[in-house]
Amino acid sequence: MSQSPAPNGRRRDAERTRAEILEVAQREFARHGYAGARVDEMAALMRTTKRMIYYYFGAKEKLYIAVLEKAYTEVRTAESTIDVQHLAPVEAIRTLAELTFDHHDAHPDFIKLVSIENIHQAEHLRRSEMLTNLGGPVTGLISQILEAGRASGDFVTDADAVDVHMMISALCVFRIANQYTFGALFGRDLTAPEHRARHREMTGEAVVAYLTGNGRRLSGQVKAG
Amino acid sequence: MSQSPAPNGRRRDAERTRAEILEVAQREFARHGYAGARVDEMAALMRTTKRMIYYYFGAKEKLYIAVLEKAYTEVRTAESTIDVQHLAPVEAIRTLAELTFDHHDAHPDFIKLVSIENIHQAEHLRRSEMLTNLGGPVTGLISQILEAGRASGDFVTDADAVDVHMMISALCVFRIANQYTFGALFGRDLTAPEHRARHREMTGEAVVAYLTGNGRRLSGQVKAG
DNA sequence: AAGCTAACGTACTAGTTCGTCCATTAGTGG
DNA sequence: CCACTAATGGACGAACTAGTACGTTAGCTT
After folding, report:
1. Residue A187 three-state SS
2. Mutate which of A219, A221, A223 to test chain B, going by most B C-beta atoms within 10 A?
3. CB contact at 8 A, B215 and A207
4. How far apart are CA A94 and CA A154, in angstroms?
5. What pLDDT sits at residue B11?
6. Strand C atom within 7 Å of B12 CB
7. Which of A45, A104, A203, B140 has its CA at a distance of 20 to 30 angstroms from the CA of residue A170?
8. In whole angstroms, what is the distance from residue B47 CA to residue B70 CA?
9. pLDDT tens column, A29-53
């Protein structure tokens, strides 16, 4: 009796428990950093106990790596759904930039985990071979767009795919990763809804403007109107 | 006897001790984060003892705030030496971007401290009134450049000074802050000397290209050659 | 329905880490 | 030259925290 041990609402559910641990752990690590995160605090925030964390993950560090792997895998999944092949180069790269913007905007905890992992010089990420091969697809896609753009004459700047990815990431990551210090220093919450659309557009515009070469070559010669 | 207690080379030197504590603490915090940094480890890396850290700074958190204040003050000092008033708008903003690039490139520990402070939601920075007023000068400078650029017709994009500062910071910060995860995922060390000059140019170019408006307005119409 | 195992909980330990107590020395003012 | 204070050092303690030993229960299999 007590609770009905129904086949769908059963109380012993390894999958659910594992998932909840990962979820709570992600928040906790993202909020306090690796060393600052408390295993006991995680346990207090879950519907299970600390014992279960060690039952499923063995150690704080292994839990952290599992959280990292899950977060990165989600990004890869999101990126793999992108279809910009049918677009003209300029619109393709703009769309990619805006999709990256949207994904980062929707997953601030992921950005924070990346920041934390960088504090630790990516020592955990490097050890996980599941993660170290995640860069390929995106740069491959960008390469294709860049080639098409140079062939059509739209792109005149000679940056490579990795450079362009860095630029897109930089613009999309900063407003999330540095929102708090920036907010304190400049009195503007970069993640506030009233800035979102403008910053999204800025991101696409900046990348397109750079690639289509309005920089040194044309400065002072192109006028508006 | 033993050591000559000369007036210049004396062994009891509060200033020197304080300075060394701050220096070592900055490295330790930047490397391990706030919670991950160990006071005992700092002491081991100094020519004095842990007792002195508490004698001068009272607590780990106060030491951390002192480190933050010192690092931010150095940036402000660097920024205040910038003189771009005499340059044309396009060159002024490019120069500002490149100077920011150079400063960040030369002070990676500062970037890491900022990352760490963002993990903690800038709770320490916000409490220090010495720091919260540091944003004014830069945005003031950018405002002037933007006004001049619009007056001359060089700038057609309607971003404000804070937006432009965000963009410059994003491009300059990312390659330092995310160098480790980026390196592991894409096989490129963003801080390697062979990429430095190109990225510096990219940064200036991107900002100028964005402001001079080669984005949506002109895409597909401006061809190279 | 009995037994077996995966899933779970409690209470505890060993080690670490921030911070302090008390003693000592360098340098300076009278 | 003596006393007084700023500066320094070493050893210690109290609290916290990752990880574990041991016991219990749910639910499936046969």
Report:
1. coil
2. A219
3. no
4. 13
5. 61
6. yes
7. B140
8. 21
9. 999 999 999 999 999 999 889 999 9
